[in-house]
Structures are given as structure tokens and as C-alpha cells.
Amino acid sequence: MILxxxxxxxxxxLTPAVFxxxxxxxxxxxxxxxxxxxxxxxxxxxxxKPTQIGFARRVPGSLSLDKPATLSWTLRNNDTRxxxxxxxxxxxxxxxxxxxxxxxxxxxxxTATIETDAAPTRRGRFGLGEVVIRTRGxxxxxxxxxxxxLPADIRVLPRFPSRAEAxxxxxxxxxxxxxxxxxxxxxxSEFEQLRDFTIDDEFRKIDWSATARAGRTIVxxxxxxxxxxxxxxxxxxxxxxxxxxxxxxxxYAMDAIMAVTTLATNLxxxxxxxxxxRTVRASVPASARRNQLGLVTSAMFDLEPALAESDYRxxxxxxxxxxxxxxxxxxxxxxVEQSVGQFLLPALPLLTRSHVVVVAAVRDPEVxxxxxxxxxxxxxxxxxxxxxxxxxxxxRTTALLRRAGATVIDAEPGxxxxxxxxxxxxxxxxxxx
Length: 433
Known about the structure:
This protein is of the alpha/beta class. It has 3 domains: 1-157, Immunoglobulin-like (Sandwich); 191-223, no CATH class; 226-429, von Willebrand factor, type A domain (Rossmann fold). Helix content is 37%, strand content 29%. Strands 1, 3, 5, 6, 8 and 9 form a 6-stranded mixed sheet that branches. It has a 6-stranded mixed sheet with strand order 16-15-12-17-18-19, with helices on both faces. Strand 13 and strand 14 form a beta hairpin. Helix 3 (163-176) packs parallel to helix 5 (249-266), helix 5 (249-266) runs parallel beside helix 12 and helix 8 packs parallel to helix 11. The model is unreliable at 179-187 (pLDDT under 50).
């Protein structure tokens, strides 16, 4: 039984009258409270049972940080009487839902739907469970309450601001590299067919053996190679928890991973994922299937950086076991001199011996601004010196990685995905895989 505020008001109004008109005020007071309790009990008894209220929740299977979505609740009165009903659900504050509870009146057999917009501010998995439903008695003094268990999950996926850039590169690449059905002759590195020589052909593509057999000049034609492999290796350790321009570094890495996966799979190449910190946290086998982006996103969306050093050697060994053929490996990490020198560099030769290795990171433009700004006071002098030292350490780390055989892409926020996609296309066009 649920007591309504007006019941307390009724009791408060009757109490002074007891002392004014009653010969035995305390005994009368007890009687008044007993009457109030009886009224409340009767009102609760007459209230429609909450179990008579049909309730359904509708939530999207997944939301995105950069795209609001709609949640809705549908209530149906299965009783023969009208009812005042209210419900409440504990939604995570980061979902930013406008409505978490509501009250309405339903006639017999009537159905109503309440909607709210959710604009999540944090990715991850958010579990839904208990819903509290209350019905109000006809007198308005009391009511009934029932808790229902309706388990569901809301998945909030990472931001993907580079989606439009990936789709633009897909269209451009299909035109430039001949991956459409009408493929361009002569480009790429994968053999396609033999045909007769034309005036526009290059002499280096003449197949002399076929020419000798046919008695006329024959050339080889090529197409852009397909079925190449790109693996994103995501460092989920402590250095990726640091924020740049309002977002953790890992968020920029996830955007870049989704962009490269989208581009590669649409160009006929295979893409995969391995995420790690102290151990491997997620792995998606390389594939060019249409749902590969969804699989990669699902493997990453609830990852939170572990506040510990990442085990690169274990992760790279696991990569070699899972992906044996020559592959483009993109290691998403942060260029901290101590961490790279102590953990990443000793493990890097495992990859560079047989694979094309790219180390991708996001640099903080604010640090560059501090380093380039002339200090005006003592505090700014210390900040300027610290920024210069940070940039020098970053430059030394980059040089060490390049000498170890890796390509380093150190981009500003918002540019990492674009630069990685362009580098992938360059590697693909030059046949380095």
C-alpha cells in the first residue's frame, strides 16, 4: 500500500479538532488516526491492481554518442474502471533521457504511449531492469505499487564522425582503382588477363612468352589487388585514458578503426581487430563481409581503458598467431616516451619482420599551442618549458619507432582517421602488401 500526501494533510487537519472538541483528546486522537488508516486501507483496496496495467518498454538495440534516439513506454489499462497510474524507471544519468517517470489517467481498455529522447554522453552497456508501477485509489488517499522486472540492455556505440569521409573515399577509390564492375585496365598489382597490345599500353607490361606463342604482341592487364588484410590493434591501457580536446584518446582511435574498417571492407579487403591492455580484451577475425563494421563496433563499444601498462609482447604474439599472412597492422596507442621505450619498442620487431606496421596516435594541439606561445609570466614560463619538453620527447619517440621499421602517424584530433585511410590507400595502390 502506498500512502498519498493528501492523507497526511487530512490527518493534520483533523488533529486540532480533537483537542478542541474532544473530552478525552488522546483517546479521540487514536480514534482519528485509526479512521484515517481505515480510509487509507479502503482506498488502497479499491484501487486498480498494478498487475492489471499492461506495460511494455521499447528501446533501440543500440544508440550512438553522436545520434539521439527515442525510448518509449506503452501502458494499457486492462481493468473495467478508469485508473490514475504512474511509473518510474531508473535510467543511467549519462543517457540524458528527458523523461524517467510519468503519471497519466487511463480509461477502461485504454492504451497510451510516452516517449522520451535520449542523447547519451558516455558509451558502454547500460542494463535496464526494475520498473515501478503505481495505481491511485478512487479517494486519492492511497494506492498500490508493484515492481516488475523487465531486463534489457542499451548499447551506446562509439562516435563515428569520420563516416562521411570514409564513404567519400570509397566512392573515389572505386572510380580511381577500378573496383567497380567495369574495371579499368592496366592499374593495380593483381593479374587479371592477357589481351592484345594497343597503342596506349606500356612496354613493360608486354608478356614476351605469350607474344612468342601467339605471334602477335600480348600484354598483361592488372587490377587493384583485393583480399588484402588490415588489422587494427587497439591499446586499451592507461595512456589511452588521457583526454585530448574533451575526449579520451581511445575514442579517437575507435573512430579511426571504424573508418578504416568501413573503407577496407567496401574495397574488397579484409579487416579485423585486436584490443588489449594487460591481456587481450577483444578480437574480431579478419573478414570482408558486409557486417564486419558492426562486429568490430560491438567488440569495442564497452571497452574502458585499464589503468595499467599494456602488454605489447603478448598482444603482438597473439596477433601473429591469429593473422599469419602479410598484413597491414595499425597499432593505436599513445607516444609516451617511457612507455614506448620500455614496452612497445622491444616487442615491435615481432611485427615488422613480416608485416607493414603503422603506429597511430593523437597529439594534443593545446600542448603545441603552449610550446609556440611566448610566456608572459613565471607560470606560463614553466608551462612553455614543459610543453617544449613534451614535444621533444614525442619527436624522439617517433624517430625511434621509424628506425624500428614502423610508419608513424601522429595526427591532431579529428584528423587521425583521415590520415590513416589515406595511408591505407597509398599502401594498397603501391602493392606493399
